[in-house]
Amino acid sequence: MNRVMISEKxxxxxxxxxxxxxxxxxxxxxxxxxxxxxxLAAGRMAPSGGNSKTARVIVFLREDIITExxxxxxxxxxxMLYKEGMYKSLYSTIKKAREKNLHFTYGAPVLxxxxxxxxxxNRIADCAVMAxxxxxxxxxxEIGSCYVNQVHWLSDNxxxxxxxxxxxxxxxxxxxxxxxxxxxxxxxxDRIDRGNKTLIYK
Length: 202
Prior knowledge:
The model has no long low-confidence stretch (mean pLDDT 93). This protein has helices at residues 8-19, 33-44, 63-78, 88-98, 123-140, 150-153, 158-165, and strands at residues 56-60, 110-117, 144-147, 173-182. It is built from seven helices and four strands, in the order ααβααβαβααβ. Helix 1 (8-19) crosses helix 5 (123-140), helix 2 (33-44) packs antiparallel against helix 5 (123-140) and helix 3 (63-78) packs antiparallel against helix 7 (158-165). It is an alpha+beta fold. The relative contact order is 0.21. It has a four-stranded antiparallel sheet with strand order 1-2-4-3. Helices cover 40% and strands 13% of the residues.
């Protein structure tokens, strides 16, 4: 029987990836600047289409800004209608917004928005790999994370854009991805088996 030999370094990376979970409850504890900077650096190291590096990162650490953005997002989603066959997370977001119970940052102390050029066709892919790099880096530091879509879904919304443009979003940019960070305040159950959907041709 052949054994696949994996270096200790690679094992460690795989362990971090396999242990990372989406966190939806956070402690009231700030992330030290040094660790946050490491996480952001991991994002900057992500590849981009044609090495374009057009993505930009907007980081919110102020609770008042995050709270105001959540309030605006809730207001906009509360006015939306359900549609048959709608993506279940979008349906859940609208439902919670109508119930005035939409808190998509879950009390996390850090909200990161990833912006990219509207006309750039690889904008979402570039931002998604940046977000994944940051979430893996956070997990290596025992910091929780969660990929959140609500701001991206409202990227063309004038009410949301006007607010975000006050904090650096350019008129020719979309919010393509976003994530939250903080120290977990929840117990995680067993990881769900995602199944093997891989096809390998030799």
